[in-house]
Amino acid sequence: MEERVLIVKYGEIAMRGNNRQLFVKRLVETIRKNIDQYGSFYVVREQGRLIIESRGGDINFDVLVPKVNKIFGILGVCPGIKTDNRDIDSLSRVALKFFKEQGIPKTFKVVTKRSDKKYPLTSNEISAAIGGFIFDNIECIDVDVHNPETTIFIEIRNAVYIYTNFIKGCGGLPYGSSGKAVSLISGGIDSPVATWLMAKRGVEVSGVYFHSPPYTGERAKEKVKDICKIISSYTGGFKLRVVGFTDLQLYLLENVPHDKLTVFLKRAMMRTAEKIAVMEYSDALITGDSAGQVASQTLQAINAINAVCTMPVMRPLCGMDKQEIVDKAREIGTFETSILPYEDCCTIFVDKHPETRPKTSVINKIESKLDKIDEFIKKAIDDMEVIDL
Length: 389
Ligand code: ATP
Ligand code: MG
Description:
Layout: E1 2-10, H1 20-35, E2 41-46, E3 49-54, H2 61-69, E4 74-83, H3 88-101, E5 107-114, H4 123-137, E6 142-143, E7 150-156, E8 160-163, E9 167-171, E10 180-184, H5 190-200, E11 204-211, H6 218-235, E12 239-244, H7 246-255, H8 261-279, E13 284-286, H9 299-306, E14 313-314, H10 322-332, H11 335-338, H12 360-368, H13 373-382, E15 385-388
Parallel strand pairs: 5-6, 5-7, 10-11, 10-13, 11-12, 13-14
Antiparallel strand pairs: 1-3, 1-4, 2-3, 4-8, 4-9, 7-8, 12-15
Helix pairs in contact: 3-4, 5-6, 5-10, 7-8, 8-9, 8-13, 9-12
Bound molecules: adenosine-5'-triphosphate (ATP) and magnesium ion.
């Protein structure tokens, strides 16, 4: 019997010894979460692969492929068929039928992978037999082993799988397999991309957003929630904390040199985020900084801002150009929301000529006289709003 199946290939987790079972289990769960609303499926484990089969009825690849391929940890998928008819004659017939359905190319080759070593023919013998059969039964077709238009893959496992097409997926590691981090998310273009990139590497992410009502509005906050909702479609849930920074910001405005205000504000953000991360047993912070993009992202400024944290701060965009970040934001679907024009608390009260090379020692010295910062931070954390998206 043959049936259409989606063959799912996953990546690096295959190399990670002990945790492998756990990661595969997590992948299966995530796949289920993403596809169960579109039909009734089995997700079956095969060595190094997952196979999605329909529980009756046909399988709609157009619907399933994008849903599966956006899952972190998946290298790509192959729409194909599964057959239990293992003898070489029936395999040849099934392969020919499937091949014809895909549209006949000018040239082809057959590549076989034989995981079942008990199978009576070697991989090369299987390829030669099936290739010969296809060649004999289709007019005007040639074998080209170097640069074929179509390659037919035959995988001999518990069952036999046949496919011609590999559709590239998201890559990365299964979500939650690389520890936890708290991401500083503004409503801008950058921080959602930074958050997504770390999630792609298996980090379980949650967000903290600082706002300063009434200087920043309700719509700015809604925008951040919308962005986090988009991220949650990749991660299967997202926790956002909204932290009020108005009092702290007004205090800084009164007490620090105006051209260095952003540096002090960012330091307060990092301190607050680190405290939240410790409370939640997270291992790192994430920001959307990109080296040199604005005054507070020169290495000197990053140095002065970073000095208040002991936790590692991931800045996955540091080596990316703005256009590359924009392209990524479009690809993951956050761009259109990010460009809605609402104020961020970093852009209110900013100086016309902000300091681009703040000295950490100078900043430390000024700050040592500001004895209310810790109090403001504590109150902001006590009062923060937590939203599950
Ligand atoms: P983004 O596009 O992410 O807003 P940006 O290019 O506007 O970044 P900055 O405003 O300097 O740059 O912010 C740098 C980083 O600081 C942001 O990527 C984000 O991680 C963090 N950040 C800035 N504003 C906020 C905020 N209101 N709440 C939480 N994090 C913030
Ligand atoms: Mg911003």
